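Archive entry: two folds, one per protein. Generate the first.
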Amino acid sequence: MIIAEIHLESNRVMSVVSEDGRMGTFDLSPYLKYEAFEALRDINEFRKVSNGGYFVEWACGADLSADTIEAKWLLKTGKHNNSNKSLQKKSKPNQRTCLDKRSKETRQRDDRGKDLV
């Protein structure tokens, strides 16, 4: 899933719109017990969120992948409406991508030492 928009609601809940138009809500409250999310107990820190498309990230460094959000969100029915002012649209070039997990030692190389894909 790619996150197109997020809207912050009360009680650490986010409304999420996926790029394919699905909408749902994600409750961050269960995550606040973990050290990585402690700062988000402060509502002002919770509001400092940015949308990276494949993840959401807060200024304190906490983040959640779109896959985690999709696995735990409650889907809403109906059409998407762009009227919410607390909208966070997907950021442009700062999207995380899948990286080749093979180490440099195990990658195949050609005669000039360049990686083969």
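Generate the second and append.
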Amino acid sequence: MNMAPLFAMVRKDLLLFFGDRRSVILSFVVPIAIASFFGSIFSDVGDDSAARINVAVVDLDNSTISKAIAANAAADSNFALTNPGEATARDEVRRGKISVAVIIPPGFGDAAGRAFLNLGKQPELGLLYDPSHRTELAMVGGILTQHVMQAVSAAMLGGSQGRALLDESVARVEPLSAADSQQTALLQMLRSVQTYNNQAAAPQPSSAPGATPGGLLMPYVVREEAVTSGSNVKYNGYAHSFAGMGVQFLLFAMANLGIEMLLERQRGLWKRLRSAPVSRTLLLGGKVVSGSIISLVTLWVSFAFAMIVFDVRIEGSVLGFVAVSVACALMAATFGLLVAAVGRTPASARAVTTLAVLMMVMLGGAWVPAFIFPQWLQQATKVVPVRWAVDGLDAMTWRGLGFSGAIAPTLVLLGFAMVFGMVAAARFRWEE
């Protein structure tokens, strides 16, 4: 087979692409700029700069227990705590400046202490929250449970309020203990707690060895360990962002290539090409080859920038990274060919293609990681090629997987490329 026409067509497309300096600059600068922005949002650049939840504590009780709750919350590394008034807290939650505001009502400390000893009804603790931050509401509620329990139990087991309530409980149970064995056992327990409280009330050296905070503490501590392919491999949000934005702009660029083919057909260029001694497959194949080269160069330039500026590294297999990149470029190029084959006119194709590309990159996890999606959507998006492209590039960069991690994404992307190419070859019309 004479390959000279194929090389000529590929050379022509490359010269046209790189001859337009503005287009070339935009093809590189736009994905780099957007990927840098998304990467700065999703990257954990250090423990000291980790995002904390904006929480306000409004203490309307001003009791020993409420002050202890506010102090414990202020010391919590998960919270960025403020102490405004109630009206100010409501306004800041409404404006979105604070995610959750904790309202400690008057009498909360006394009522919580009584409820702790089963002497009264449980008091209400108000939580004002921004509806767009419902996830933070659940986190604040869980963390606050620990601080409230510690503060209440510390006051009841050693504090003056606890001693007073215990005396009240003993006075209430003692007349009933003579006729009820359960009340007798309860009275013994309460007197034991009284003894403990009296001992706890005695002054203790502040530097006593092994001293721990008062109150009931969590019965365990958590040891966190980030699991990666190696001790030096860490999550880099920029790697994911450059993968997602790179794939997105490959699809947009190749969709534009398909629209250019429709414009060429509209001008009668493809009709004249049919008269040349060149097969249909060779003509369409030339577009695929040139589109793949442009896509590959664009993707690698973006990742080169990320490696230089944001310390993105190919922690996994370099060969696997190349394989996924090439398969991704072929998929994008055949997608552009599919646009040219299915589109009727350049205007209609542009509108439909923009929607299709946006849907693919949104569902494929190019904008935000797919693990944020609901479980059913995570499974459904496996039919989207962008999902395989992004997962494959992630596997070869920050996940640090070996070549085996690139096999499935590469094969699936090549499968999509084959399907797109076959449909395009069968549907392409030489005349509008």
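Annotation attached to the second fold: The first strand starts at residue 53 and ends at 59. Residues 79 and 306 are 32 Å apart (CA to CA).
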